[in-house]
Design a protein that fits this description.
Length: about 110
Amino acid sequence: MVAKLLDWSTDVEDAIARLGKPGLVFPFSKAAPLVDYLASRMVVPRSDLLDRAKQINGSDAENFLASTLANVTMAIDHKGAVPDPGGWYFHDADFDMYVLDRRFSAAWRSARS
């Protein structure tokens, strides 16, 4: 898949709608701030993202992080795997960092401002 060069606005709207869906284990009020944190930094070590997840959710940071990333991914790609390249983020296993697509980041921050 080729990196997405189009506007991410519709995908962000879909992600926000999915995170706000009733019945999710982690409500929008918790999940959205985690994506806000990632979007504001664009490159985040996994340890920092887990620390933020603990601050937001209080416990079960691993599940909270995985669930939030999966819900955004499902809203955008309609499957659990993030396309690489071309996804809204990727996990750099060598450096254990999450790297957000800069256009997705801009669209997310715009939608949430």
